[in-house]
């Protein structure tokens, strides 16, 4: 989040994410959809065109979480992200974003895309249509035709509305920084306007429309969650990664599995804390990206890994560029151990793993089984863990955008 020096016209984005999610029922922007918090998907989507400065406008209470999600998002290296505080209205939030943009070196001649944080699937083709129409008016907006019949309801009575020529307005809305700034300066009450196009038009500016995209949905109602998952799933390909790990029981070490301390007379031997569950999970995650294994990433010959907490290693795996580009969708784990009894730890492990992987606990399954007293596992000499992780691979467009 460092300052950028002013230069000839460049592209910026303001993403407004300071709403209260009242109609959705929980904080939709921080909720994972198809394995990624919604806001990360939106930020990645808007950066499919060469954005240099990106202002994320959020509620002051969400600032720390948003900083974390910005760091998690797979954004191109050219993008400098700044956070701004939201206001009481959308207009106030956009104005705060605009001030932050200008304070961080954007010039009036720069171009800005103002986008709803809750529209995570804006496609590159739509962004390019906006950029191509930049000189045709004062602000460019995407629109889609209204296909349903319309009625206005009031006090129990309804009246038919003529839908001919009626379009629904989407975001991003695209204009010069100076155009947006002067619209705010010249408008008595910007809160009266629902979007930037209405505001700019009210001060005499010309609005240009381009074709929007029906998939560019604004996640608003609880039912939109399924629609969003379906759109994201349809756009990406599923990949599967498999992981396997074995560690030997020894005395004098704690037993840690899935990031949870287990009551046991014996622990597992290893360079690290020997958390075989996390090791199998990490290998499965890496497998989804074709990124090798943990032995290659964290060699046992390297002293820095002696006694290391495996949740720290998982943090490194999740922060790897190749992994950040994926959407981890599910993890299915089987622990093969004759003893100790692990049944009571299944749910705590499931919850811990879900948090570490950024998943809902229903997307993680932890199974435990013995080995019918057969062989080395049956004799209680060690344990084995198997794990399958599924993930969505980014679309070709997303891969091109993040180098
Ligand atoms: N270390 C273990 C192994 C098994 N369990 C629980 O017992 C069930 C039956 O185990 P099998 O060895 O017959 O597959 C298994 O589903 C687990 O619920 C356990 O708690 N700890
Ligand atoms: C976790 C690492 C870290 O050096 O070591 P160990 O704890 O020995 O675990 P193992 O699964 O045998 O090897 C993977 C290593 O990356």
Describe this structure in words.
- This protein is an alpha/beta fold.
- It folds into two domains: 219 residues, Spore Coat Polysaccharide Biosynthesis Protein SpsA, Chain A; 161 residues, 2-C-methyl-D-erythritol 2,4-cyclodiphosphate synthase (60s Ribosomal Protein L30, Chain: A, 2-Layer Sandwich), CATH 3.30.1330.50.
- It contains 14 helices and 19 strands.
- The strands form five sheets. Strands 1, 4, 5, 6, 7, 10, 11 and 12 form an eight-stranded mixed sheet that branches. Strands 16-13-19-17-18 form a five-stranded mixed sheet. It has a two-stranded antiparallel ribbon with strand order 2-3.
- The longest helix is centred in the first third of the chain and has 14 residues.
- The radius of gyration is 25 Å and the shape is elongated.
- It starts with 10 loop residues before the first strand and ends with a helix.
- The model has no long low-confidence stretch (mean pLDDT 93).
- The site of 2C-methyl-D-erythritol 2,4-cyclodiphosphate has 12 residues, from helix 9.
- It comes from Candidatus Cryosericum odellii.
- Belongs to the IspF family.
- InterPro entries: IspD/F, IspD/TarI, ISPD_synthase_CS, MECDP_synthase, MECDP_synthase_CS, MECDP_synthase_sf, Nucleotide-diphossugar_trans.
- Keywords: Isoprene biosynthesis, Lyase, Metal-binding, Multifunctional enzyme, Nucleotidyltransferase, Transferase.
């Amino acid at each position: 989040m460092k300052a950028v020096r002013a230069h000839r016209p460049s592209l910026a984005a303001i993403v407004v994410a300071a709403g209260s999610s009242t109609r959705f029922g929980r904080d939709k922007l921080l909720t994972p959809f198809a394995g990624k918090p919604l806001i990360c998907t939106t930020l990645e989507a808007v950066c499919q065109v060469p954005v240099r400065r990106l202002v994320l406008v959020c509620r002051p209470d969400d600032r720390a979480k948003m900083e974390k999600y910005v760091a998690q998002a797979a954004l191109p290296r050219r993008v400098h992200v700044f956070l701004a505080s939201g206001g009481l209205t959308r207009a106030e939030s956009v104005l705060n974003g605009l001030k932050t943009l200008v304070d961080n070196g954007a010039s009036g001649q720069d171009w800005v895309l103002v986008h709803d944080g809750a529209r995570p699937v804006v496609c590159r083709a739509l962004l390019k249509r906006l950029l191509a129409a930049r000189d045709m008016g004062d602000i460019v907006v995407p629109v889609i035709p209204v296909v349903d019949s319309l009625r206005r309801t009031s006090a129990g009575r309804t009246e038919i509305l003529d839908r001919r020529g009626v379009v629904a307005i989407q975001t991003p809305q695209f204009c010069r920084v100076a155009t947006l700034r002067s619209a705010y300066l010249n408008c008595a009450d910007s809160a009266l306007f629902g979007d930037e196009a209405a505001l700019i038009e009210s001060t005499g500016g010309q609005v240009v429309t381009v074709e929007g995209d029906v998939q560019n949905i604004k996640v608003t109602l609880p039912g939109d969650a399924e629609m969003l998952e379906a759109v994201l799933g349809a756009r990406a390909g599923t990949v599967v990664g498999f992981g396997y790990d074995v560690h030997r029981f020894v005395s004098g070490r704690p037993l840690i599995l899935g990031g949870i301390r287990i009551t046991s007379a014996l622990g597992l031997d290893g360079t690290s804390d020997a958390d075989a569950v996390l090791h199998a999970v990490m290998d499965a995650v890496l497998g989804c990206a074709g990124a090798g294994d943990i032995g290659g990433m964290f060699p046992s010959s390297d002293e820095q890994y002696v006694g290391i907490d495996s949740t720290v290693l998982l943090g490194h795996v999740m922060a790897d560029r190749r992994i950040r580009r994926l959407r981890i969708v599910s993890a299915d784990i089987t622990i093969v151990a004759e003893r100790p009894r692990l049944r009571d730890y299944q749910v705590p492990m499931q919850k811990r793993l879900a948090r570490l992987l950024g998943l809902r606990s229903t997307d993680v399954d932890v199974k435990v089984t013995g080995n019918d007293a057969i062989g080395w596992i049956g004799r209680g000499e060690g344990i084995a863990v198997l794990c399958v992780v599924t993930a969505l691979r980014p679309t070709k467009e997303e891969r091109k955008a993040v180098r």
